[in-house]
Amino acid sequence: MTRITTRSYNLQSFQTLHDCGLPPVLARIFAARGIENSSQLETELIRLIPFAQLKNITVTAALLADAIAAKKRLLIIADYDSDGATACAIGIRILRKFGATIDYLVPNRFEFGYGLTPEIVHLAHETKQPDLLITVDNGIASVEGVSTANRLGMQVIITDHHLPGDALPAAMAIINPNQPGCPFPSKSIAGVGVIFYLMLALRAELRQRGAFATGQEPNLAGFLDLVALGTVADVVKLDSNNRILVQQGLERIRKGRACAGINALLQVSRRDYAQISTYELGFMLGPRLNAAGRLDDMSLGIECLITDDEAYALEIAKQLDELNRQRREIESTMQESALIKLDDILKIRDEEIQTTYSICLFDQDWHQGVIGILASRIKDKYHRPVIIFAPGSHGEIKGSGRSINGLHLRDALDLVAKQRPELISKFGGHAAAAGLTINAGDFEKFRDAFEHVAQILLTPANLTQVIETDGDLEPAEINLELAAYLDHQVWGQGFPQPSFNARFYVESQRIVGEKHLKLKLRKLDCADSDQLRKSDNTFDGILFFQNDPLPDIIDAVYRLQVNEYNGKTSLQFLLEHWFQADLSIISNAS
After folding, report:
1. How far apart are the first and last CA of the chain?
2. Exposed, middle or buried: residue 514 (CB in 10 Å: 0-12, 13-18, 19+)?
3. Could you cite one Gene Ontology molecular function of this protein (predicted)?
4. What pLDDT does residue 526 have?
5. Going from the N-terminus, what domains does the chain have, and what CATH number goes with each?
6. Closest CA to 503 of 558, 581, 589
7. Residue 141 region by backbone torsions, left for phi larger than 0, else alpha for psi between -120 and 50, else beta
8. SS3 label, residue 544
9. What is the DSSP letter of 99?
10. Cβ count near 319 (within 10 Å)
C-alpha cells in the first residue's frame, strides 16, 4: 500500500526564509527540510565544523607527522565500495604530498570479506611490510584484526564512521564521530569525510612544525571532488556539514578541476562536467566505481582515482563501465529469480505481502557482489526490510540488507544476535544498510529470528510506503528557472530532492527510446468538491521504463527537470510515481 503526503514545515522558518529574499516555493521547500534561516544554506568552507571537534584527531595527526618524519612505511587498508575507494584516494594523494611513504591494500570481498580482518593483516605484513596501518571506512569493529597487527609489530590508526560494537579495537588511535565520547556533531559524515578531516589536522600539525616553510602548502580543497563523490555514493545523511563538502566538490567538478579519474568516469557515462549534480555522483559515477568492488577488485577503482594520467584514467574508466554493464545483467537475472522465490518459496503475492514484516532470500547461484543492490530493489518494491544472501566460503553465506524507516538494521541484527547468539558469525553497518555472515545451514533459523525481531520493532503503519512530496505548485511557480535552481542544489539522503504532486489529464503519449513514455500533460484543478476542470497550461512529461499506456486521468508525483535536446533547453515533468485517479469523485472534466 502506498500513500502520498505533503511535507509539513515550520511556519516561522518559512517566514524567516521568505523575509530573507527566498520566493515562497523555495522557502517552503527548505523549511520542510529543517532549514530555519538562510545561513544554514551557505556552503562556504569557513562554515565547516572545525576538525578539532573530532575525538583524538590532534593526537593522531601528531602520530602521523612523527611517522612521516621517521620515514615509516604507511599502508592504507581500504573498503571495497565507493566511500572506501575515494577515502583511500584522498589518503594516498594527500599523504604523498606531505612526503609520506604510503601504499594501499584493499581486501578482495570474495577472499577476505570486509574490514581489517586477521587474514588481511597477515597479507599486509607478508607483502607490504608496513610499520603503520591506516584504515579508511572500516576498522571500528576489527578487534581481532587490530590485535593481530599489534602482535606482528604493526601500529594501527583507525578512521571510520560506522557504529562501534560493544568493544573498541586496541588501536593506537581511533577517529570516528560515532565512537563513545566524540563531540563531533556530524554523526553522518562518510568515511571519505573522516580521512579528509584527519588530513586537515595533519596539515595543521605539519604547518606548526614548519614543514611548509620552504615550499607551497597543499590546498586540500582541491580534493573535495573525491569527498563529494564518496559522500553521495555512500548515501549518508546530507546534514549541513556534508552538504558543504558536497557543494564545494561539485563546484570544483563543474569548473573542470576534478581529478583525472572523475573526469574519465564522467566521459564514459556521457555526462557534461559543467552540468553535474548529485544525481550523476550517486547514479552514474558511484555505480561504475562500485562495480570494481562488486565483480572484480576495487584496486582498479582506486587506481582510476589516484592517477594523474588522463589516458590511463580513461582506460580504467572504460573497464569500470564494462564491469558495471555486467553488474546490471547479473542484477537483472538475480532480481527475476528473487521475485520468483518471493512468489513460489515464500508464498507471497503482492496483495498478500502485509502478512510478513521482513524478507530474507538466499540462492546458491547468486553473486555476492550484487546482493546489496538486489536487497535495495526488493526493499523498494515491497517496502520491507530485506536481507539477501549469497554463498561465501567454508560453508558460510554472506548477507547484505537494506531497511525502511522504523527499523534500524544494525540494531535489529544486534537484537537477533542477543536472542540467538549461535546464528550470526559477524555483522555491522548502519540504520539503513548492514552486512552479516551466517552458516548456510542456519538460513531458515535466521530468517525466522529476523522476522520475529522485525515484528517487535515495526508497526503495521511502518509497512505502508509513504511518498512525501512538497505539494502542488502554483502555475507561476512552474518555470525553467526554478528547475535549473533546484538542479544545482545538493540533495540526497536526509535532504530529499523536491518533488510535487498533482492530478493530470494525459493529452497525448508516445513511446520513445523503445521503453519510455513521452507525455503531454494538462493539469486538472479542483473547481469544487466533486468537479475538476482542465487548466490552460500543458507540460511536457517523461515516464521512464514504461511501455504500457497511461489512463486518461492520473495522480502523479513529479520533479521539475531541465531537458536539453538538439541544442534546445526546455522544461519537462519527470514522473516518479503515478496512480490511476479515482474517477468516482469526478462528475465533469471539461
Report:
1. 31
2. exposed
3. nucleic acid binding
4. 57
5. 49-250 (3.90.1640.30), 356-463 (3.10.310.30), 470-580 (2.40.50.460)
6. 581
7. alpha
8. coil
9. T
10. 18
